[in-house]
């Protein structure tokens, strides 16, 4: 492979990462608008119901898994599915009922640092002094955002409900990441399709019991659901995995910070305001997360 081929492959990987994170950012903005008309449970259920068939088709034709082996591995996928695709998205959409997409994405930016803490506690992974400093800085940034630049007010007034729900969301994603380290032998798209099916099966009884199947009539909401079901749920994941064949994982992980950047840019473009506290806190979080992962980034060729 020539240097030109490597450069072209790297460029393609970067473009794939940019598209994946842009679509994930769209989930915050469009999801925030959708929860004004549909419940978080319905939005979560419909999102993965829409994504299910495309994921199964992609898994079948791209990865060609042994479906009997997939069926045997399914029990090991249930818990990750409940904590990741189900709980995280339900809590995210619940948070978006009470807070802005910008605020939610800024809190979500702390997730890599929270995962590092959990990995140190439960997986005995060593944290360097630089990483500890990065975590402290990122946590300070989150508190700055939650308090609107006045941390002392948290003692007197506590946290907003949307902020608490968003912290709960990144906690469930941290659990998902830790327990998801167990090897199942399934290819990535196939594993996601199985988790997606698990979410659809798990949410269906609750949707039916609460109000029965509800098909939105508003065209704008329908298009929002189609976007959320196809782009953040299917396209982002496929693009991310394609990028990982071109770019080392540690470097690709840095691109996750662009979810926050894109969410802010989209929101501001649509007329939402960015407060000074959010700007300062967001920079603190992003810098803290970068320092938490800086060693892995440096060691990657």
UniProtKB/TrEMBL annotation:
Name under which the protein is recorded: DMT family transporter
GO cellular component: membrane
Protein keywords: Membrane, Transmembrane, Transmembrane helix
Major place of residence: membrane
Domain spans labelled EamA: 12-146, 161-292
TM annotation in the entry: 12-39, 45-62, 74-96, 102-123, 130-147, 159-179, 191-209, 221-240, 252-270, 276-297
Domain of life: Bacteria
Organism the protein comes from: Kocuria coralli
Compartmental location: Membrane
Membrane topology according to the record: Multi-pass membrane protein
Keyword Transmembrane helix: yes
Family: Belongs to the EamA transporter family.
InterPro entries associated with the record: AA-Vitamin_Transporters (IPR050638), EamA_dom (IPR000620), EmrE-like (IPR037185)
Pfam families referenced in this protein's UniProt entry, alphabetically: EamA
């Amino acid at each position: 492979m020539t240097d030109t081929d490597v450069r072209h492959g790297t460029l393609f990987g970067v473009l794939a990462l940019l598209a994946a994170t842009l679509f994930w950012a769209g989930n915050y903005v469009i999801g925030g608008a959708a929860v004004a008309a549909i419940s978080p449970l319905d939005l979560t259920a419909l999102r993965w119901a829409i994504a299910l068939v495309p994921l199964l088709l992609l898994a079948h034709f791209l990865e060609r898994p042994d479906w009997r082996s997939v069926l045997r591995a399914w029990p090991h996928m249930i818990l990750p599915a409940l904590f990741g695709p189900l709980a995280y998205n339900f809590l995210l959409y619940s948070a978006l009922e009470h807070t802005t997409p910008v605020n939610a994405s800024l809190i979500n930016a702390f997730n890599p640092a929270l995962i590092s803490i959990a990995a140190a506690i439960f997986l005995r992974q060593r944290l360097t002094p630089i990483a500890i400093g990065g975590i402290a800085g990122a946590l300070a940034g989150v508190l700055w955002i939650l308090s609107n630049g006045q941390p002392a007010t948290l003692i007197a007034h506590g946290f907003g409900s949307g902020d608490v729900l968003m912290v709960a969301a990144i906690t469930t994603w941290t659990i998902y990441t830790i327990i998801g380290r167990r090897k199942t032998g399934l290819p990535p798209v196939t594993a996601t399709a199985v988790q997606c099916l698990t979410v659809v099966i798990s949410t269906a009884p609750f949707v039916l019991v609460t109000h029965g199947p509800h098909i939105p009539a508003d065209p704008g909401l329908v298009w929002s659901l189609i976007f959320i079901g196809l782009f953040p749920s299917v396209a982002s994941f496929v693009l991310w995995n394609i990028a990982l064949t071109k770019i080392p994982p540690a470097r690709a992980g840095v691109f996750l910070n662009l979810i926050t950047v894109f969410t802010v840019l989209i929101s501001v473009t649509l007329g939402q305001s960015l407060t000074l506290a959010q700007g300062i806190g967001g920079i603190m979080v992003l810098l803290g997360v970068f320092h938490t992962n800086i060693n892995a980034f440096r060691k990657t060729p």
